[in-house]
Amino acid sequence: MTDSQPLTLSGALPFWMVMANVPLAVMGTLWGGLWLLLLPAYGFVLVTILDRLTGLNEENPDPETEDQALFWYRAVTLVWVPVQVVLVFWILWYVPAHRHLNGLELVVLLYGVGIMTGASGIVYAHELMHQKNRTERWLGDILLSMVLYSHFRSEHLLVHHAHVATPRDAVTARYNESFFRFFPRVLVECPRSAWAAEVAMLKRRGLSALDRRNPFWRYAALQLGMLLAALILGGWMGLAMFLVQAFFAIWMLELTNYIEHYGLTRKYLGNGKFEHVKPQHSWNAAHRVSNWLLINLQRHSDHHYKPDRRFPLLQTYGEDEAPQLPYGYPLMAALAMVPPVWRRMMNPRVRKWRAMYYPEITDWAPYRKGNHA
């Protein structure tokens, strides 16, 4: 692993590969047929092939780099918001107006759009909502409202980062838990925990749960606005299309959550306390092209270790510091959909991780069941 990766315009340009989604989505929408396969194939197949061809990027930038030097990196996260809004709502208007796609084509289109609004839109929202700048946080809220998952901001910032790799965090996938058990569980638990966290914050300030400062009012207003826009532009068909793409986007988000911490746990210290979060509590992936597409989300070990770092400054870690995924997120997401394959690949890695970091722990049952004495 080498240091001092230069942060230049040329270094920022690969992260703009997200914009390739736009022509691919437009071609699929206009022409249907096999053109519809381009959007999902880009995110899953081409990026995985390019990961294989280009290898790992183990260079690290200077983490003390000032924001002024990150203009072209930050710009892509800001520009993507209006691009996604215009593109998605154009699709919701165009398809109902022309009725040129059959049922299967429509599902494939919305699957591709959901991959885009999930694997790109929510990932960009994740970056934006971590910033102190109010405008960036609002832009993140807009992206989340486009997939009806606005509570993710509260859940992620107030619950996930505080309790990651413990039984108190719903989106830390348990050892041996399949994605198909994980997914319905988080759909139920995460909105509830996000609401509870916001209400607890308001209570500490002497405010009620229904106070106007509760962000759930903003979440509801933004999501209602998106639903109304879909209905106005595309009628009932447009509204139904909006809901389907949102489902696929949420599916992609939770697949990513499933991958990021599968089977990893922080050591229980007693009295209801766990050790501090360290790089070893998230799976790291240094695959070059998928990190470009996902704006370094795969450098997840460092994100949890230093949550306030902007994506260009995230550090990658070697095998001696953080557990490593064998492939980038796109291929890992596909493999997670086949539980027997996933377990054969990941369970030995979890057991190796346990032996490496916590050889003194002999009974892991309380970590799986969340019933520490």
Automatic annotation (TrEMBL):
Keyword hit for Hydrolase: no
InterPro entries referenced in this protein's UniProt entry, alphabetically: AlkB/XylM, FA_desaturase_dom
Chief localization: membrane
Membrane topology: Multi-pass membrane protein
UniProt entry keywords in alphabetical sequence: Cell inner membrane, Cell membrane, Iron, Membrane, Metal-binding, Monooxygenase, Oxidoreductase, Transmembrane, Transmembrane helix
Gene Ontology CC terms, in alphabetical order: plasma membrane
Name of a matching Pfam family: FA_desaturase
Domain Fatty acid desaturase: 108-333
Biological process terms in GO annotation: lipid metabolic process
Entry's localization field: Cell inner membrane
GO MF assignments: metal ion binding; monooxygenase activity
Transmembrane segments annotated in the record for this chain: 30-50, 71-94, 106-125, 220-253
Similarity remark: Belongs to the fatty acid desaturase type 1 family. AlkB subfamily.
Protein name as it appears in the record: Alkane 1-monooxygenase
Organism (species): Primorskyibacter flagellatus
